[in-house]
Amino acid sequence: MIRVQLPAHLRTLARVNDEVLLDVRGEVTLGAVLDALEDRYPVLRGTIRDHVTHRRRPFVRFFACEQDLSHDPPQTPLPPEVIAATEPFLVIGAMAGG
Amino acid sequence: MSGVRVLVGTRKGAFVLTSDGTRKQWNVSGPHFAGWEIYHLKGSPVNQDRIYASQSSGWFGQMIQRSNDGGKTWEPVGNKFVYDGTPGTHQWYDGTPHPWEFARVWHLEPSLTDPETVYAGVQDAAMFRTTDGGQNWSELAGLRTHPSGPKWQPGAGGLCLHTILIDPSNPNRIFIAISAAGAFRTDDGGKSWKPINRGLKSEGIPSPNAEVGHCVHRIAMHRSRPNTLFMQKHWDVMRTDDAGESWTEVSGNLPTDFGFAMDVHAHEPETVYVVPIKSDSEHFPPDGQLRVFRSRTGGNEWEPLTKGLPQRDCYVNVLRDAMTVDALDTCGVYFGTTGGQVYASADAGDTWTAIVRDLPPVLSVEAQTLK
User: Fold this and answer.
1) Contact between chains at A96 and B58 (C-beta distance less than 8 A)
2) Which of A76, B105, B208, B227 is the most buried (most CB within 10 A)?
3) pLDDT at position A96
């Protein structure tokens, strides 16, 4: 299972209170985790990345194991610690404005 | 007894204010969608418990929320707004071509006959429609692809389609307004659109016959006279009696004819309300006095309405979607300010009281007259 931490507003939309646990089939890449997240919680479609282009929204960032993965392509494999579920994959709302 | 539900969209959430027909005591519910910008909420005219809300965020984009119980509970519905085909470009502020990019839904206008059908006015300016209660949205692309589209430029708040008026006598006729392209009309249910800006004069547009480019802030209609529209333009209060074919100025004795919000009395089609704002560079009331102006003559002759409104040191703004009326026997008038107050008048504007004083900046106010 992959642990995913969402920002507060997206937890509210998804109606979850804590980390999300996802079963990701095949290679655990950045794109595969986001696909699995949106399959499990369709309400999040369009909130993290564009509906059509799948480009990350500008004020959303991705982190794991203290690495910024925001600019990495979707086929980027996630770190072994994330795959082993000892570390979460973080979706962050960028700190910008109030 | 009948009552009123006032739907308030703010920079940081939505609020639902309810009262009985006396409109003296109010119950305040909210914030709903706390922390999100709620540009607009509006109820279906044929199902008062069906309400739609536009929820947006610079971080997480657009959501559409729907309530089936008058705003007590909500469910997210479709948020996929994709322009039809290759969007092309409009003009940017510097005159260069700029790709059409969806930013948010400014205004939701439910159908007058079907609670599942809603029109959405969006930024960058375009019109979308759902016929399944908000689950799926498709563009009425004839508007954006009008030949004048590449010449449209954004106003200071963006290239936004902010006003939608459906003709009660002809559902195929819809009026819309875009900052800063102008007003448009369709007579075929949204397939094709015609600019209706003849007679508007705007500083910076040398040609009095310019088809587009006018910064229309708001248009309003009385349902019994759908060919008569009132317009608060960037500067100038205007009126048409031929469905927009020609406009004449009715600013008359207003202290300033700049402003954003306006509406028409529910039972008197010649009674109009505006909130004059000092200027386009000073978005607050003249002299620190918050005054609604009412004309009972369809414009030109205006009287200030001040009882209950702050008459000193008031420097709030009233945005374009933040004024509305109810349809009780004595028409109620409501408006919200960027200072977080929502003012109500249960006597058609003669006297005012603040229902709430300390909300986040108010973006929109809509009233539902409850049965």
Assistant:
1) yes
2) B105
3) 67
In which band, very low, low, confident or very high, does the pLDDT at B1 lie, cut at 50, 70 and 90? low
Closest Cα of chain A to B295: distance in Å?
A: 40
How far is B116 from B109, CA to CA, in rounded Å? Answer: 11
Instruction: Give the count of domains, chain A.
Output: 1
Residues B321/B326/B331/B334 CA torsion (nearest 10 deg): -40
Look up the CATH number of the domain holding residue A89: 3.10.20.30
Nearest to B327 by CA among B285, B268, B278, B277: B268
> Model pTM greater than 0.90?
yes
User: How far apart are the C-alpha atoms of B285 and B291, rounded to whole Å?
Assistant: 7
Separation between Cα atoms, residue B81 and residue B100, nearest integer Å: 12
Residue B35 contacts A, CB cutoff 8 Å: yes
CATH number at residue B287: 2.130.10.10
Residue B86, chain A, CB below 8 Å: the answer is no
Is B148 in a helix, a strand, or coil? coil
